[in-house]
Design a protein that fits this description.
Elements lengths: L2 H19 L1 E3 L6 E3 L2 H28 L6 H33 L4
Antiparallel strand pairs: 1-2
């Protein structure tokens, strides 16, 4: 296996881990900058919305036979949109549960 491939995968995993923890570390420096949660949440919702729009567009094209859209492309886009929406719903449920737990804490 190529060492450069392993290094690039490791860097991607580290970047994803840093992003998930809420901090972003510059590649060449040791500076740590914070990531705005609301911006990340809005970006995630926009990605889900785009996936659903793409799936709707492909399914409409398939039904109206306007272009050379294959059935498997339509089904894959619909499944991607479904999975992304279900993931967003689960994140929302976790956020609501966390909020309820915080509100029930005694001060």
């Amino acid at each position: 296996m190529d060492k450069s491939g392993i290094d690039s995968i490791l860097q991607q995993l580290q970047a994803t881990s840093a992003l998930a923890s809420g901090v972003k570390k510059s590649a060449g420096t040791d500076e740590v900058t914070s990531v705005d949660f609301s911006e990340k949440l809005k970006a995630a919702v926009d990605q889900v919305n785009n996936a659903q729009r793409n799936a709707d567009k492909l399914s409409e094209q398939f039904v109206s036979d306007q272009s050379n859209v294959d059935l498997h492309e339509v089904m894959i886009s619909l499944q991607k949109a479904n999975v992304s929406f279900q993931s967003m719903v689960q994140v929302r449920n976790k956020l609501v549960t966390a909020y309820q737990e915080i509100m029930n804490m005694q001060v």
